[in-house]
Every structure is written in C-alpha cells, then in structure tokens.
C-alpha cells in the first residue's frame, strides 16, 4: 500500500516525485523501459531555466531523480500492464512486481514520437535525427535540414526551422499533403522551404560527425537517391502512452488524457495526469515539470482527508 504512486519518470513524473517526497508522502515511482523519458535521447538542453550554459538531457534527468531520492522517493523499474481504477485504493498490475495498491496515482507516462522505422534512424537520435524542432532547431543554425511528414505538425516544424536553417526540405511519401490548407499555404510561401514529395524515406545516412543524408525512393521512377542534409526532423505525430488504462480514464480521440481545465485532475477522483500524456500542444520539458508540480500539490490536497488506509498503524 502506497499513499501515492507516480507512473513515469520524465520531467513531469520526477518533479511530482520531488514535491510528494518533500511532503513526506513517500511516493513510489515506477520507471518503464526508458527511464527519464524523451530527454534522455537528446544531447544539449539549452532552454531549461537555471542552466545558462545548457545541460545534457540525461544529466538533467539524473539530477532530478537524485533530488527526488534525496527526499525519500522510492524508484522501481517495471512495466504497468493494467490498472483497476474502479474503486479506491487503486490496484496496479506491474510486470516483475505483481499487484501494487495506492491511495492516489499520478500518470506521467508521456507521449512517444512516432518514428519512420527506417535503417539507422534510432541509432542517429540525438546525432542529427530529432523529433522536436523547438528543442533542437537552434543546433542547426546555418545548416540544411530535412523535415519528414505531411501533416500540420510537419508544416509548423518546417516553418519554425527556417529561423535557423539555410534550407528546409519537406519530404513526404505522397504528392498530396494531409496538412490543412492554411498550413500548406504558409509553408509554400516560405522561400526557405523546398519540396521532396512522392518520396519514401529508406535509410538515414550518417558519418563520424552525424547525419549527412537521407536515402529515399522516388515513387514515380522507383529510383533511389540520397538527399544531402545536416539534420532530419521526423514530424509524423505522437502517440500518448495510455493503452494500459484500458479506457478507464477519459481521453480525446488521439488518446491524450483529458484533465479538468487549469488542473491535472482526471475524471477519476484521486488520479492525476501531467506532462505530455495530457499535453498535445506544448510538449516542453519546462511545461511538463510545471504540470508535475501541479499534480503533486493536487494529490497532496486530495490525500488530506481522503485516506483509505489507517497509516497511523503502519510502521
């Protein structure tokens, strides 16, 4: 039996753990197969306040974890297969741990960027391949960039990246784009954006210093070609990690958890959501951390007077 269990260890989950631990709630933090979340796959983080010279993503996450541990947060590695939120205390089935019971739950499982699934893509993450323009665009000042995708997010990222790059080539497997007309128009009116339509990405080409090109197939001719580039931004969407909830928490049509406006409260009393799992708009480390703070404070307030277990008898 735990007073609070935090599922996920990105900036939101770790911030929630810090606040819960400082409130003497002794939270259990369950970290999945990617401890630290997406920031562990990035290199330099220059937009997180307090680090004027920047900090490595894995180092930032490691520091957050140490801070939570310092105040008494407990960490265990496991995969949450399912939860029972029908009544309190809540029950979690965790691979390798069995059943865990909690008075409250904070869900901070994030959203995973969809990848192309092509050769050398994962190996090049943080070395020229990225899924976040606002996170990594600055590092490509004066460079040539490729953005892969045909939706609104791809158009938005391409336009944003023209602030830094000398050229941004939009690569999409079809001639037609899925993006809204207004977003297409903005991209087509941008003189720095060029087009590589009807081309299917096949392989990320890289050297000692990182990405050098993207091998694609011309769908009209069937021929393969290499598009030279210094960086590749994959913008084909994100998938919130909410499958394990099995419909017990209200989500939108994409699977993002819906919270009460201005809070982290879900439709289930005592269950809170923070970070990218409930944020499809900003998806930044600092906004995730802020929502983690909110979730912890709201969980603390909820637990004050809503305890099911008699903790006075717990050694």
From TrEMBL:
Cofactor annotation comment: Binds 1 FAD per subunit.
Root EC class: oxidoreductase
NADP listed as a keyword: yes
PROSITE patterns associated with the record: PYRIDINE_REDOX_2
Domain of life: Bacteria
Reactions catalysed: [thioredoxin]-dithiol + NADP(+) = [thioredoxin]-disulfide + NADPH + H(+)
Keyword list, A-Z: Disulfide bond, FAD, Flavoprotein, NADP, Oxidoreductase, Redox-active center
Boundaries of every FAD/NAD(P)-binding domain copy: 3-292
Subunit and partners: Homodimer.
Family assignment from sequence similarity: Belongs to the class-II pyridine nucleotide-disulfide oxidoreductase family.
UniProt cross-references to NCBIfam families, sorted A to Z: TRX_reduct
Protein name: Thioredoxin reductase
Organism: Paenibacillus gyeongsangnamensis
